From TrEMBL:
PANTHER family membership: DEOXYURIDINE 5'-TRIPHOSPHATE NUCLEOTIDOHYDROLASE
Domain of life the protein comes from: Eukaryota
Gene3D superfamilies membership: 2.70.40.10
The family this protein is said to belong to: Belongs to the dUTPase family.
Example GO biological process: dUTP catabolic process
Annotated pathway: Pyrimidine metabolism; dUMP biosynthesis; dUMP from dCTP (dUTP route): step 2/2
Molecular-function GO terms, alphabetical: dUTP diphosphatase activity; magnesium ion binding
Lineage: Eukaryota, Viridiplantae, Streptophyta, Embryophyta, Tracheophyta
EC number from the UniProt entry: 3.6.1.23
Keywords recorded for this protein, A-Z: Hydrolase, Magnesium, Metal-binding, Nucleotide metabolism
Entry protein name: Deoxyuridine 5'-triphosphate nucleotidohydrolase
Amino acid sequence: MAGKLGAICSRLISPLFNHHCRLPRFPQIHSPPPPFVPFSRRHRLPPRALSAVAMATATNGNASAAAAAAAAADSAVQEPPHKIAKVAPLLKVKKLSENAVLPSRGSALAAGYDLSSAAEVVVPARGKAMVPTDLSIAIPEGTYARVAPRSGLALKHSIDVGAGVIDADYRGPVGVILFNHSDTDFAVKPGDRIAQMIIEVIVTPEVAEVEDLDATVRGEGGFGSTGV
């Protein structure tokens, strides 16, 4: 009896409940998919910027503006607040006389600074002479100055340079030793460019005494052991 009564009540109540509790139906709005934003390998944005592009594109559909905004935001995050400028060391030079000429480079990418004579000097044939520059130079720490011959003097007059090392802690006058390998005396006048000075970076490791050295393929071979 109770089962029949429950079945009858459920048949009567179910339509009434569905009628009064039915939710209104709204028309479905199909939004178009966001446009595809191509990114080449060369202009690929970082993950943070890509997520910003996706969010901005889904919001207003302006992909190009979103990409530009995301890239600007990402670069602003990655850039340090203050850029540290690299300061090149100064080559401090002191003139010791009126005849001294400051070292200069012949072109923008020249490696050497031209050194000029401050006096009249004759370099004898098959001989040598010290030519003063009347300059004192403070070589930057961590480097040394190598005094090298000028190609024009070497080719035309067989003039070479010897003992060309200027240490960073040397503060005396700089002189250039010229060797004349020709059979004719070579005359030097004040202001003549006689050599070039090249600043080179050096490494000064500590000296450690050891019982043996690492073995290499070459070993002790030297003085033409690898060929003439």
